[in-house]
Amino acid sequence: MINVPLLQIIMSRRIHARRTEGVDKNVWNEFTQLAADYKAVNLGHGFPDFSPPKFVQEAFCDAVNGGAQMHQYTRVFGHPRLVQSLATFFSRVTGHEIDPLEDVLVTVGAYQALFCAFQALIDEGDEVIIVEPYFNCYQTMVKMVGGKEVYVPLRPKVEESQSSAVWTLSAEELASKFTPRTKAIVINTPNNPLGKVYKTEELQMIADLCIKHDVLCISDEVYEWLTYDGNKHVKIASLPSMWERTITIGSGGKTFSATGWKVGWVISSGHIIKHMKTIFKNSVYHCPTAAQEAVACAFEREYKLFGSPESYFQQLPAMLHHRRRKLASCLQSVGLQPIMPEGGYFMIADISSVKVDFNDDSTKDESYDCRFVKWLTKEKGLATIPVSIFYSPEHRKEFDKYVRFCFVKEEATLDAAEQILRKWSQGK
Ligand code: PMP
Ligand code: GLN
After folding, report:
1. What spacing in Å lies between the alpha carbon of 357 and ligand 1's midpoint?
2. Minimum CA distance residue for ligand 2 atom 10
């Protein structure tokens, strides 16, 4: 039975903690729900709608069938086999000897790795430079620790931008954002949503500023294996004097097309990781054992096949390269201007040349791209994501004529999207 006086007492005071203020709205919930409500073809949310490769699925089945210990707790900061395989693999990639027990932390997806980084390293009043467009949880996670976000946008160098490569940071503008309060900078390469893959010179420019101002670099590299047209992913941690100050974040979900497993990791110097471990052990404490075992096995296989045509890190980008081209030509044929991504899951397209009468009062106060995405989902049955959500309020208006499409989808899904776009362009 409800105790009414007690309920009244509870309700008469502020229930929520202040850190929940201003971060309650989540655009992913809103746009994912909209896609579901209208049963739209979904090029919105970034996940593969195809299965992971057989060896990955088998690794998971083998783990589940691997005996009692696979169903019990494992080492708190990462299953021994996984931290070992991550250390071995990434020592080879970075050329730095990574200690599996000191320099690696396994988390519940890259998302939790980011959360642990901000919680462990940012204090109230610290400034965090965020490069735009950015995966939007960086903003809310900085807010939750009382940090101050400082934004700097990538901008297209030329007006007619056809590739993410022409979107660059102004070195002067970036340098002007560093102050004595700057604690960290967050970068994301390959970038979500733009698909930019930073070149070594660009990373060196960022690294020089980090070193000059004694600032940490949080480098979100969840799409590291997905680069196209000969572009190469470079780890900022591998540049001189950057290992000691870089927090590199990865995702088993993105690496092996199994986003639902939610296995992520952080690789960094032990003197940084130890603080993230403190947050981790006082919150989640432990990630599911079987999923960690499966990611470990998949990495061991990739280690053996590294650089060969059988490697999934070769096969997945090769497959997606084709789908990316298919989506780009479809967008072009209906008058949208795609910006060819150098890497990642997504392609953004300029929608400014298409004229749409939204005729929807419920969205009249929203930005142009949000109205467009809602209209396309509701009226045409195609779900996408507005790009302005990846910008700060101060820069949003400058970038509200782009929409993000995810091409990590079955051919059939891309065909269905193409049909919708063609019909629309023919006025049907
Ligand atoms: N960073 C970026 C740039 C992302 O796009 C995502 C979404 N997958 C994440 C982090 C979170 O990754 P995970 O699914 O491993 O938590
Ligand atoms: N990274 C994915 C995207 O950008 C998933 C987002 C999420 O899960 N919040 O679509």
Report:
1. 34
2. 46
Q: Is the CB of 220 under 6 A from ligand 1?
A: yes
Q: CATH number, domain at 37? A: 3.90.1150.10
pLDDT, tens digit (0-9, with 9 covering 90-100), for 130-144: 999 999 999 999 999
Decide: 256 in ligand 1 pocket, CB within 6 A. no
pLDDT value at position 428? 67
Identify which of 246, 242, 224, 220 has the alpha carbon closest to the alpha carbon of residue 233: 224
pLDDT digits (tens, 9 = 90+) for 207-254: 999 999 999 999 999 999 999 999 999 999 999 999 999 999 999 999
Please, where are the H alpha helices in 151-238?
Answer: 171-177, 200-213
Residue 117 CA to ligand 2 center (angstroms) comes to 18
- Residues with CB under 6 Å of ligand 2 are 28, 45-46, 192
98 and 240 housed in the same domain: yes
Report CA(399)–ligand 2 centroid distance (Å): 19
The count of structural domains within the chain is: 2
Q: What is the mean pLDDT of each run of 10 residues along the chain (428 residues)?
A: 60 87 88 96 97 98 97 98 98 95 98 98 98 97 97 88 93 98 98 98 98 98 97 97 97 98 98 98 94 98 97 97 95 93 97 86 90 95 97 93 97 97 86
Residue numbers of the domain that contains 379: 6-51+312-425
pTM for the full predicted model: 0.96
Q: Which two tokens stand for residue 246?
A: 């870089």
Residue 206 lies in a domain: yes
109 and 77 together in one domain: yes
Long-range CB contacts (< 8 A, 24+ apart) of 66-72? 66/290, 66/293, 69/289, 70/289, 70/290, 70/293, 71/289, 71/290, 72/289
In this structure, the residue with its CA closest to atom 7 of ligand 2 is: 28
The tally of CA atoms less than 13 A away on the side-chain side of residue 391 is 22
